[in-house]
Amino acid sequence: MQVTIQPGALSGNLRAPASKSSMQRACAAALLCKGTTEILNPGHSNDDMAAMDTITRLGAEIEKSDDKIVVKSKGIQPLSDTIFCGESGLGIRMFTPLVALSERALRIDGTGSLRTRPMNFFDEILPKLKVNIQSQQGKLPLDIQGPLQPADITVDGSLSSQFLTGLLMAYSAAGASGVSIHVNELKSRPYIDLTLSVMRSFGMKVPENRNYESFYFDTTTVTPAATRSYEVEGDWSGGAFLLVAGAIAGNITVGGLDMNSTQADKAILQALQDSGAGMSVRDKEIELRPSSLKAFQFDATDCPDLFPPLVALAACCQGTTVITGVSRLAHKESDRGITLQDEFGKMGIKITLQDDLMLIEGGTGLKAAKVHSRHDHRIAMACAVAALRADGPVSIDEAEAINKSYPDFYEHIQQLGADVTTHGIKVHG
User: Fold this and answer.
1) Considering 47, 48, 235, 305, which one is annotated as catalytic?
2) Is the pLDDT reported for residue 365 higher than 60?
3) Average per-residue pLDDT in the chain?
4) Range of the domain at 136
5) N or C: which end of the chain has fewer CB within 10 A?
6) Which parts of 233-279 fold into alpha helices (H)?
7) How many Å apart are CA 113 and CA 248, to the nearest integer?
8) pLDDT of residue 331
9) How far is CA 66 from CA 14, 24, 36, 56, 72, in A?
């Protein structure tokens, strides 16, 4: 699918989408905690749908309605020999240790870029937990047979916090007692805060966080309530694109974002503030308006998903913006550092990659262009946002990549006044 965005101004109010980080964790917790769970404000992105499919294959029953889903679970009781995680990086990393709780031999697979992402972590760690695993030279599919038995282990936290999320949930469900998961160089700490918050909300056994260097499970037992209700947070990752759009082409108001959220991408507020964006922050509501924007410095090591919206913002800032954390971008849906350099280069923005730094020369003007999402949802959205300030139309090939995380994105920016066409046909919100 090709989408064309015309330059123009935005106005109006919009609610941010549901967080897939929160939604997927809630699905996992609902599976592990026996009983009935109501999940309010559920997401419907491809990654969310993959999470629901996964817990169904692992034995949960799901009833869907417009504003909630009801999950009924008796724990992990696999109904299928194969678990599909779609193209969800969080899904494969979080659910693999949970699948390993079963004594049944199961295969875990995925699609698209997920099949090229390294999974050597599991080859190294799971055998230490008495789990048999066979990968394809560190890639999918994974053949696994448990049950996982918690033990003192040390893991590399520099790869992704998502691996640790799965282990924390699996240890809790397995009744870990008197053992610790030690972590070296943990990245994206806020996502672990989110994991622990979800576990706590579901009444799961939550380990003692010892300065993010180890997580100790004591001998306390916890029995969660048989019926639970959990509301999925608004998504700071998807919301970041709306906030940047407002900063460069507003006036808009974005609702549904919790200022007390542990989501890492809430840090977009700091970048907007540092760039001089016209912004008023209230409880669960942020107002954006155009202003004179200046280059800024930002460390995205703990929130690498912010790189695409930050690049769109930096392109409209006077001067050279410097963002740290490029090393976190190699194993995303695309190699995002190079992809951003290439696709924004087509729009006339010079991006230099220097060791762990990205330098964006902004204020030079965005040009009309034909770009490609590289099948990466965040690249598609970043290009669409930047297009609002281009000197002509920007066409995005493989624009449907947004379905992975924010399927309503084009419809939402059109509701705010963006001129969006698909295959030459006007999209109606």
Assistant:
1) 305
2) yes
3) 94
4) 20-231
5) C
6) 236-249, 268-274
7) 31
8) 57
9) 18, 18, 18, 19, 18
The token pair that represents 426 in the structure block: 């006007």
Number of structural domains (the chain) is 2
The one-letter amino acid code at 315 reads: A
Q: Which amino acid is at 12?
A: G
To the query of whether residue 305 is one of the catalytic residues in this protein, the response is: yes
The whole-number pLDDT of residue 209 equals 96
Residues 190 and 158 both lie in one domain: yes
| Beta strand 106-109 pairing with 82-84 | parallel
Nearest to residue 23, comparing CAs of 230, 268, 207?
230
Residue 289 has pLDDT above 60, yes or no: yes
CA nearest 153: which of 212, 99, 216, 91?
A: 216
User: Residue 400 pLDDT more than 90?
Assistant: yes
Residues constituting the chain: 429
Same domain, 7 and 28: no
Contact 183, 164 (CB under 8 A): yes
Is 405 found in the same domain as 323?
A: yes
Last residue of a domain, one of 170, 198, 231: 231
At 63-74, the pLDDT tens digits run 998 899 999 999
Taking 50 as the threshold, does the pLDDT of residue 84 lie above it? yes
CB 104 within 8 A of CB 84: no
* Distance of alpha carbon 68 from alpha carbon 181, whole angstroms: 34
Say if residue 186's pLDDT is above 70.
yes
Put simply, whether the predicted model's pTM sits higher than 0.85 gets the answer yes
26: tokens are 């809630």
HEC secondary structure over 22-86: HHHHHHHHHHHCCEEEEEECCCCCHHHHHHHHHHHHCCCEEEECCCEEEEEECCCCCCCCEEECC
Please state, for a pLDDT cut of 70, what percent of the chain lies above it: 96
Strands 68-73, 35-40: parallel, antiparallel or unpaired by DSSP?
antiparallel
Task: Please compute Rg for the chain using Cα positions.
Answer: 21
pLDDT, one tens digit per residue, over 1-45 is 999 999 999 999 999 999 999 999 999 999 999 999 999 999 999
Which stretch of DSSP H or E encloses residue 96? helix 89-99
> What is the number of other CB atoms lying within 10 angstroms of the CB of residue 123?
15
Domain boundary among 231, 263, 288: 231
